[in-house]
Amino acid sequence: MDNPSSSILSALGGGSGIDMAKLATDLSTAKYAAQIEQLKSRSDLMETRISAAAALKGQLSQLASALGERVRTGDLAASAATANPAVAKVSVAGGARANGTYSLEVTQLASSQTLVGKPYATSDSLVGEGTLTFDFGTVSGGSFSADGGTAPLSIEVTADDTLSTLASKISTSGSGLTAYVVSGSSGAQLVIKGEQGAANGFTISGSGASAGGGASAPGNIDFLDWSPATDGGQLKATAKDARLVFDGVEVTSATNTVTGLPAGLSLTLTGTNAGAPTEISFDRKDGAITSLMEDLVAALNDVTGQLKQTASPLGGELGNDSGARALKRELAALAGTVIMPNAPAGAPRTLGDLGLTASREGTFRLDADRLKETLARDPDGAAGMFTSGLYGVFATMDKLARNLGSTTDPGSLGGSIARYERQQTQIENRLEKIAEQQENLRAQLGRSFSWADRRVTQSQSTLSFLKSQVALWTAKD
Asked: Which helix (H) or strand (E) holds 132?
């Protein structure tokens, strides 16, 4: 076989002046050009498939996310009210199932103890050095029962403390007490308020250097003493728990905010209605449900339209993709899928009960008459399908998006993306290997061509010498 280097040199006329580096580069490039072109074409195909599958996956995720927002905080978030709004304000925890009615009778509001102390000359009057101790518990009539779970509060009072500075120390003690001074017709009086709840009543006892004993007067620390047994009219309000009857069950609460009720309900009590129970009911969401179903149909048709284009057997980027086929199957079965498996007999259970229908071509439409019939027959059951719990419209679409987006399932869109990304990585690794081989070949050819060029140059130099000698010999003859 002819030497490739000598054949090329012969074709080019031989000798120096040839760009051997460029020649080596061109030859090494030509050797691998077909492989590189094939791999790049396949890489472009993988990119297209990844993009198409990711777009479908993204559409499903966005649809599920939008549903979740509307169910949790949007127009489908559960809301309730009382028939007598003067009794309580009602709130509903996000994602609660909004159905049913409840009776409410508030017999007593929670209150805090309010104590107005004995009068001083002014707010700058000294209160006396010592320790002021607050014991917490229940005040009932003329008796006090200490709360063993709450530690007493001790406030150190200096000789320079006035009624005003003492009020500040009480308010900033972190005990839940607040205090301020009011100057009225009787003089300056210290007003102290506790927290709501029967167990947040309190007594006051002063001790220390300025205590006056039985003859205490303004300026003696024990002039501030108070207990229910010795009350002289200072007690203006007693600490009490809220009392209510919720659906026939007696409930107490230390504050006027009542939580832990069924159906995610919370109450802020504002008044009493003893003997005249009111009703708590959830707001109807017929209009919001209809609007969401219309939006869901439009969003699903966007997905099916994109799927039809990208998964077409003729020219579709995902024409033979297992993830795209899985999505087709799931969408085809969506209207008949049971999304409320624990619903009682006769209650709506499927998206079809909410009017969702699918055609043989894979598109969706809303059967408005069927939706109206469901809303009229069982409004609570229909509303209960729109929660952020384990079942319902949102949970179904969220599960669909998660399952089809899973990278661990080879038959899902996520699995397809992972597979194409692996193939893409393999192509990139192969291109890197070819680039290395191409560079090695270029270097090898460069060395060979350089050696051949030197030999040709040497031969031409010898030929030139011989020609000059022949010319000399011929001239002498």
From this structure: strand 130-140
Measured CA to CA, the distance from residue 268 to residue 29 in angstroms comes to 79
Q: How far apart are CA 204 and CA 453, in angstroms?
A: 111
pTM exceeds 0.70, yes or no: no
What is the signed CA dihedral for 369, 370, 374, 375, rounded to 10 degrees?
A: -30
Note whether 267 and 257 are within 8 A (CB).
yes
Task: Kindly list the strands in the beta sheet with 112-116, ordered across the sheet, starting from the edge strand earlier in the chain.
Answer: 178-184, 187-196, 112-116, 235-237
Using CB atoms within 10 A of its CB, is residue 466 exposed (0-12), middle (13-18) or buried (19+)? exposed
Residue 276 per-residue DSSP state: -
**Residue 72, helix vs strand vs coil:** helix
**Phi, psi of 460, rounded to the nearest 5 degrees:** -65, -35
Give the separation between CA 4 and CA 441, rounded to whole angstroms: 14
**Model confidence over 277-329: pLDDT tens digits?**
999 998 888 999 999 999 999 999 999 999 999 988 888 899 889 999 999 99
User: Sign of the C-alpha dihedral, residues 450, 454, 457, 463?
Assistant: negative
Q: Which residues does 22 contact at the CB level (< 8 Å), separation at least 6?
A: none
CA distances from 73 to 3, 95, 386 (A): 80, 9, 12
Please list, residue by residue across 262-281, b when 16 or more beta carbons sit within 10 angstroms of its beta carbon and e when fewer do.
ebbbbbebeebbeeebbebb
Residue 459, both tokens? 């031969």
